Amino acid sequence: MSDLQSRIDTLRQTLNQHSYQYYVLDNPSIPDADYDALYRELQVLEQQHPDLITADSPTQRVGAAPLDKFGQVTHQIAMLSLDNAFDAADFQAFYQRMADRLDQQVEFSFCAEPKLDGLAVSIRYEDGLLVQAATRGDGYTGEDITSNIKTIRAIPLKLQGDYPPVLEVRGEVFMPLDGFEKMNDKARLAGDKVFANPRNAAAGSLRQLDPRITANRPLSFYAYAVGAVTDPALLLNSKSHYARLQQLKSWGLPVCPEIRLVAGAEAALAYHADILQRRASLAYEIDGVVLKVDDLLQQQNLGFVSRAPRWAIAFKFPAQEKTTRLLDVEFQVGRTGSVTPVARLEPVSVGGVTVSNATLHNQDEINRLGIKIGDNVIIRRAGDVIPQIVAVVLAERPQDARDIVFPTECPVCGSTTERVEGEAVTRCTGGLFCGAQRKEALKHFVARKAMDIEGLGDKLIEQLVDEKLVQSPVDIYRLDMPALVGLERMGEKSAMKLLAAIEQSKQSSLPRFIYALGIREVGEATALNLAQHFRRLDALRAASLEELLAVADVGSVVAGQILHFLAESHNQTVIDGLITVGVQWPDIAEKAQTAQPLAGQTLVLTGTLIAMGRDEAKEKLQQLGAKVAGSVSAKTSAVIAGDNAGSKLAKAEELGVAVWTEQQMLDLFSEHGLR
Ligand SMILES: NC(=O)c1ccc[n+]([C@@H]2O[C@H](COP(=O)([O-])OP(=O)(O)OC[C@H]3O[C@@H](n4cnc5c(N)ncnc54)[C@H](O)[C@@H]3O)[C@@H](O)[C@H]2O)c1
Ligand SMILES: [Zn+2]
């Protein structure tokens, strides 16, 4: 066998294998761009040696035979594929071929349509009712997917208006991008199959034996052609493909709103450029535009080759999926301490942009992909979404591929990293100390419900950290006039005010202080419980797991976070530092623990309080054992109504819930030494 014949054989075999993966299993093993390149190579070889073309060559056929598990539908009119153009020259050649063939120098008008990336279906209406739907299959026989198609809301079960007795509509079933992302996110969490791209998701969702599965998938549909029709005269007297689509629309079928009628090659190229530029802002994925000669008579005269019409071309966009190699994995620490694996890739151009990094999300994603360093991977970059690794080409795994190992220490601050049971993320436990988390931790530290430093807003924190004036919360208490007035937009007066606020914040409370530390899982309520239980910070710092578990509302996750936090010596240094600079709080009286006159009661604060802010009132009510809720229900024990109380008060009266005045609340506080 000649080298040429053997290359052709190899190409056909490879292409058939990939087609099977793609069309039958909805699970491609290589990116479309790679497939297209092999296909192109075969096409060129066959063009140069037409004697070697065989009827079963992938270049002569459409799709793949239908799966046996579905009923079969014979298409009355074949459902063909489209020839491709990859650049303007390809398109010009297509244009010229048509002009030559028709031997006329007229300008062609095109119906210009986005090339939706989904799968083609044919839907048959009889007397206006949807009676059958099929996939393209091999172009002649498709799979019966009638029940599945009926679950797609965009597809009318009944036509409107003056429709013909029999009408076959052709169009694309696709999965809009937001639905696709949401579905994959959900699948990732549940450990279910994640689809590589919206096309596979659409095909995999539609080709289900159980239509209830299809019904739960976010599928949509646009019509773009007419198949068999009983009374073609009803399809307008017009001889325009574009006009036909308008007519389909009038019968209630959805047609893509981006479709335009354009005159001449130049306008067709401009349409391609325009849609390409807006590709990322469309709600669905497209892989090019389809340019169809609009005049139906010209279409008829041009006719078909074996697998595609001569009068249409798919002018493809740059591919959004490519193969490349995973060179290494680095770990980035986010503002909340999450440690994210970032893939370093051999740079590759995807959709016109060079991609050298992609996110790997977390350990679960790495397990799911079964990915190793050194692997050949398929990456996808669609729109503005960060590049993703969608699959590993296992067949090409090198001998020396290495496992990806999560660091046990934070790459930024060296603190231990930890993956909480049941959570996907691995986190740095450095908290206040970790440079990556510094700004967020400081914003939390100064917040109203924490140390409550007025005038120290997010912008100022960022400025202070960027200027290296503040690294840890302790540094806040070391700020002075010279440092502050040196800052942009900071006058002497506001600097003085800020210093006063910082000074004032030193008089804190133990619950606030514990909350301010920003221990994961320790919110306001938990901080309060901890403070009341241990009463002294030292006791909390020395607490064992058992002692922590004895605190109300503290389970093993929370206890674990507290122990982790306290086990880091630099967190201890921060706490000591804060005490050294003078942060303090009154002792929590023993009776606060015993005297809980409001235990078991749920209270709701409403209206404006005069004597104190709502947060302070809430904190005190909680100290007395109450739960403070945000809305009134039959379970509410009492509503405390300040000035101008509105709907909550009305609701309380309606439900017969007790109403207290602010003064009654203040009296209660005084009685228990809280004022
Ligand atoms: N990755 C792989 O392993 C693999 C294997 C086989 C095929 N493929 C890919 O499949 C494609 C070739 O397959 P093909 O023959 O199914 O079709 P095609 O995608 O090249 O073109 C025809 C199809 O385009 C679709 N289409 C979208 N919008 C349309 C519109 N407005 N008007 C008409 N048709 C529209 C229809 O589904 C139609 O069947 C290539 O892109 C190839 O890369 C990939
Ligand atoms: Zn860290």
TrEMBL record:
Top EC category: ligase
Function: DNA ligase that catalyzes the formation of phosphodiester linkages between 5'-phosphoryl and 3'-hydroxyl groups in double-stranded DNA using NAD as a coenzyme and as the energy source for the reaction. It is essential for DNA replication and repair of damaged DNA.
Keywords for this protein: DNA damage, DNA repair, DNA replication, Ligase, Magnesium, Manganese, Metal-binding, NAD, Zinc
Superkingdom: Bacteria
CDD domains (UniProt xref): BRCT_DNA_ligase_like, LIGANc
The name this protein goes by in its record: DNA ligase
Family annotation (NCBIfam families): dnlj, PRK07956.1
Gene3D superfamilies: 5' to 3' exonuclease, C-terminal subdomain, 6.20.10.30, BRCT domain, DNA ligase/mRNA capping enzyme, Helix hairpin bin, Nucleic acid-binding proteins
SUPFAM superfamilies according to UniProt: BRCT domain, DNA ligase/mRNA capping enzyme, catalytic domain, Nucleic acid-binding proteins, RuvA domain 2-like
Signal peptide as annotated in the record: none
Entry's Gene Ontology molecular function annotations: DNA ligase (NAD+) activity
Residues that coordinate or bind Zn(2+): C410, C413, C434
EC number: 6.5.1.2
Matching Pfam families: BRCT, DNA_ligase_aden, DNA_ligase_ZBD, HHH_2, OB_DNA_ligase
Domain (BRCT) ranges: 593-675
Active-site residues, Swiss-Prot/TrEMBL: K115
Catalytic activity: NAD(+) + (deoxyribonucleotide)n-3'-hydroxyl + 5'-phospho-(deoxyribonucleotide)m = (deoxyribonucleotide)n+m + AMP + beta-nicotinamide D-nucleotide
CC cofactor: Mg(2+); Mn(2+)
Gene it is expressed from: ligA
Annotated NAD(+) binding sites: D32, A33, D34, Y35, D36, S81, L82, E113, R136, E172, K292, K316
Keyword Magnesium: yes
Family: Belongs to the NAD-dependent DNA ligase family. LigA subfamily.
